[in-house]
């Protein structure tokens, strides 16, 4: 029998916990290890425990679910649980598996879990010297960091653009950012990481690089300015 996947619930509403705990307990493939009611509790759990799956509410006080995802270097497989459908498109930029609207019905929950279980096991990408190893079409590919121009988020994947071709890698933008040398690459947008040496021009709202125009996110402008100063 396969080892149950360790999961946590992150939601500020006790009623939401009650429903998810009930659903999780009906699935032998899952093991509930922690219940968190805010982002700070969640950060402490993720820092000290291995987590395979996170059920995350979006609308939480002080730090929202999406803001929590922005802070994480390594994001566990995540299923969002929320009463608000308008955040669906934005949420997929963080590589979430599914988006469950409250009230959550058991058949829909089961479908989401099947989607999670069908994914390949999470393999931690590696980096060594001037190269990184990422998974592309079930094959581990080693890329020289000197050849990378920029990377763009594509839902559950990141498209890495090099000097001669592009690779659609099974990795999140946050994971890739943690692998790349921080003194040579900079995050300029929640969906883009660029190689500083490859920047040809910096405009007010965009970066010109390899004949491509890359947007600069508002929250990343200050970091970019410090990096280039």
Write the layout of secondary structure elements.
Blueprint: E1 5-10, H1 14-25, E2 30-36, H2 39-48, E3 53-57, H3 65-71, E4 77-82, H4 88-91, E5 98-101, H5 106-117, E6 126-128, E7 131-136, E8 139-144, E9 148-154, E10 157-162, E11 166-169, H6 173-179, E12 185-189, E13 192-195, E14 199-202, E15 206-209, E16 212-215, H7 221-228
Parallel strand pairs: 1-2, 1-3, 3-4, 4-5
Antiparallel strand pairs: 6-7, 7-8, 9-10, 9-13, 10-11, 12-13, 14-15, 15-16
Describe this structure in words.
The protein is globular and about 55 Å long. The mean pLDDT is 85. The protein is of the alpha/beta class and 229 residues long. The protein has helices spanning 14-25, 39-48, 65-71, 88-91, 106-117, 173-179, 221-228, and strands at residues 5-10, 30-36, 53-57, 77-82, 98-101, 126-128, 131-136, 139-144, 148-154, 157-162, 166-169, 185-189, 192-195, 199-202, 206-209, 212-215. It starts with a strand and ends with a helix. A five-stranded parallel beta sheet has the order 2-1-3-4-5. Strands 11-10-9-13-12 form a five-stranded antiparallel beta sheet. It has a three-stranded antiparallel beta sheet with strand order 6-7-8, with no helix packed on it. The protein folds into two domains: 5-117, Rossmann fold, CATH 3.40.50.2300; 127-228, LytTr DNA-binding domain (OB fold (Dihydrolipoamide Acetyltransferase, E2P), Beta Barrel).
